[in-house]
# Entry
Amino acid sequence: MSIETTITSDVVGLIKPPPVSRRGFMSATAAVAAGYTLATGPVRAEVITTDTSGLQAGDAKIKVGSEEMPAYFVRPASSTKAPVIIVAMEIFGLHEYIKDVTRRLAKLGAFAVAPDYYFRKGTDLTKITDIKDLLPVVNSKPDAELLSDLDATVVWAGSQGGDTAKLGIIGFCRGGRTVWEYAAHSGTLKAGVAFYGPPVDAPNPLWPKSPLQLAPEMKAPVLGLYGGADTGIPVAQVEQLKAALAENKKTAEFKIYPEAPHGFHADYRGSYRKDAAEDAWKQAQAWFKKYGVLS
# Structure
């Protein structure tokens, strides 16, 4: 199997989700019309939808080198210096779930930005319906380019009046890995929250160090939220990362939801677990408050 088509641990948990009844799901047509990806299977009818009242929401182009990276941003309409939180997406592109998370953060007072850092491939990931077709795109994203895209996102948010002295990042699935990577890279990050980000990578020369290998380099406190029933990320790996961070005297906390599968926060998927998702969201808010991102 080539690197491009390697099924990484975050994807294993998606390909082998727990069995779920087909009742309570949107038709494919309705799901696409609502802006959700179909790559993970049927979309739940009871998705969480967050309105934009009191918010300013929109699409942006962020300058990265000679190119322009698309992004979705939301911030409180009344706030001039809102704290900045980057939203690191799953492998499915900038679809409705990620946009809704961005709105939820803005409701908490943040200038939240979700950059579409897979844009260079010229493919709309949200329209791809088979995970195997996504892998060549997302697995060929070099970490060095990813980190510089995130740095550019921070610069852009600052240029738009965001308070980058109160910088946070939150990510899901592959985006959870991104949180760990960025926490080891950025000297300005105040805190990160990683939802089920793989601690160990599949071999890939474009990803020089996994989160586990980066434990000694962590510069910001990270909260790791994981599912005990994740078929792709064994709890033993999470414990390994926890031990490596403790050994290097890094600030990190972990919460494992014993019955939760991979993607338990993704309210559009069959993997959604309401209790774990709601508790994890509360934990995330408390973490950002504790480290001065949110007030």
Helices lie at 9-15, 28-33, 96-107, 131-138, 143-159, 174-185, 235-247, 274-290.
